[in-house]
Design a protein that fits this description.
- The chain is an alpha/beta fold.
- The protein has nine helices and twelve strands.
- It has helices at 6-13, 66-71, 75-82, 113-129, 143-154, 183-186, 194-203, 229-242, 287-294, and strands at residues 25-27, 40-44, 55-57, 85-90, 136-141, 161-165, 211-212, 214-220, 250-253, 260-265, 271-276, 311-312.
- A ten-stranded mixed sheet has the order 1-2-4-3-5-6-8-11-10-9, with helices on both faces.
- α5 links the parallel β5 and β6.
- The N and C termini lie far apart (38 Å).
């Protein structure tokens, strides 16, 4: 199913990291907390950790896995350089390896689904490695981008920021089951008012009225798998969650790639949307842009962290 998503793998595997140290991807087999869907837990811990290491969660795409995600980006190499830890979750969905971004459980804080397994990985890692609980981030491509939005929406108390490449709005795939593929959402037929989308995000953590993590999204205008309409719907969703106008406050052409356009919303750079002109679903990962967004190059005081500036809702 969704075999076209396999094209993502072709490009990503061509950019495999070159590691010049003894650290490697490891599978965690011990009990790391609630994991009702049996999500696989893989982790990269560099040889030299920061004093209180930040954590980056990197969920894979459909038809991918933790190993392919580890091999398909530069995050492990960057972790070795800056001392942060990377968690590579592995989907339990053996049919197509897509993430559960549909069930009410996964869309709700600590209620179950794949998202709870990933949240347990973060909590375990923070405890074991004395990590910095205010510097936890998430990024992914395609289904990994969808899970990024789920985690940002359902666990705003855990994640400081997210970076989602070629995803859909939080809740767009919602349905009765753990492996629902919403053709209506994928083809751009699910459209809602900003207030409707925002209500879905807020329902992800009932009663929560605290700080909201910042997020950046990327989408190709020629995406043949997840229609570009989803980019426009994501903008409606997150601007409403943050209380921003849907009119960007700043627009920058040809960044970070020629033909891409960066839109910034609000006054404090809390939401960025990148429109990748002429790009298909096989969108190019932008590690440098995500790293800057997360401020993961920062290894001393004054680094961006949860609760800093931002939005309280």
């Amino acid at each position: 199913m969704h075999s076209i998503l396999r094209s993502v793998v072709t490009w990503i595997l061509a950019t495999a990291p070159i590691l010049a140290n003894g650290a490697s991807l490891q599978k965690v087999t011990s009990d790391f907390g609630p994991n009702p869907r049996n999500v696989g837990f893989y982790i990269y811990v560099p040889d030299k950790l920061a004093a209180r290491p930040p954590i980056l969660v990197n969920p894979h795409w459909c038809h991918g896995d933790a190993q392919a995600c580890y091999s398909g980006s530069q995050y492990a190499t960057l972790a070795s350089k800056y001392g942060f830890i990377v968690i590579y979750p592995d989907s339990p969905n053996t049919a197509d390896k897509c993430w559960d971004v549909s069930s009410n459980e996964t869309l709700t804080h600590d209620a179950g689904g794949d998202s709870l397994g990933i949240a347990s990985m973060v909590r375990w890692t923070l405890d074991k490695y004395k990590g910095d609980s205010k510097r936890v981030f998430v990024t992914g491509v395609s289904s990994g981008a969808m899970m990024t939005s789920v985690l940002i929406g359902a666990y705003p108390d855990m994640f400081a920021a997210g970076s989602a490449f070629a995803g859909v709005p939080y809740g767009c795939f919602s349905g009765n089951g753990y492996g629902v593929w919403s053709d209506a959402c994928a083809t751009g037929k699910v459209k809602k008012a900003g207030t409707e989308w925002a209500s879905m995000v807020k329902a992800g953590y009932p009663g929560y009225s605290g700080w909201r993590p910042k997020i950046q999204i990327f989408h190709g205008t020629k995406d043949e798998v997840l229609n570009y309409t989803n980019f426009e719907e994501e903008i409606k969703e997150w601007t409403t969650v943050f209380g921003y106008s849907q009119i960007p406050t700043n627009t920058t052409l040809d960044t970070p790639v020629s033909g891409w356009t960066k839109y910034v919303y609000g006054s404090n750079d809390w939401f960025q949307a990148y429109s990748a002109g002429g790009v298909s679903h096989n969108i190019q990962n932008q590690e440098a842009t995500a790293m800057k967004w997360f401020d993961l190059q920062c290894t001393e005081g004054g680094c961006f962290e949860w609760g800093q500036r931002g939005i309280f809702i």
